[in-house]
Design goal:
Elements: E1 3-6, E2 10-14, E3 23-32, E4 37-42, E5 47-52, E6 56-61, H1 65-73, H2 77-84, E7 91-96
Antiparallel strand pairs: 1-3, 2-3, 3-4, 4-5, 5-6, 6-7
Helix pairs in contact: 1-2
Length: 98
């Protein structure tokens, strides 16, 4: 099972741009035992977050909590993200966070 630890809801600073200000979003994270993915998370607005081992974080808009949980518990999290998330949902790189 890829999930190694459930983490409490933690704030993630989303940078502002153009017409919207920076904001904090609370993300429910699961640490993952994966060669490329460090964490999978989701917020209450229906977005999925992926933190890679490089510390880059991506948000994928409109991904249901159920789909995010399925990715976290998939036997191959990276394959799940590549085949069922990356090309089907709009994503944005938020930046590396350490």
């Amino acid at each position: 099972m890829p999930v190694t630890r459930k983490l409490d809801s933690m704030p993630l600073r989303i940078p502002g741009g153009g017409m919207w200000p920076a904001q904090d979003v609370f993300v429910n994270w699961r640490e993952i035992d994966s060669s490329n993915v460090k964490r999978i998370g989701w917020d209450n607005a229906g977005n999925m977050y992926v933190q890679y081992k490089s510390d880059a974080i991506y948000v994928y808009y409109g991904v249901s909590r159920q789909r995010a949980v399925a990715a976290a518990y998939s036997t191959s999290t990276g394959r799940y993200i590549n085949t069922r998330i990356r090309n089907q949902y709009e994503g944005l790189k938020l930046g590396p966070y350490r």
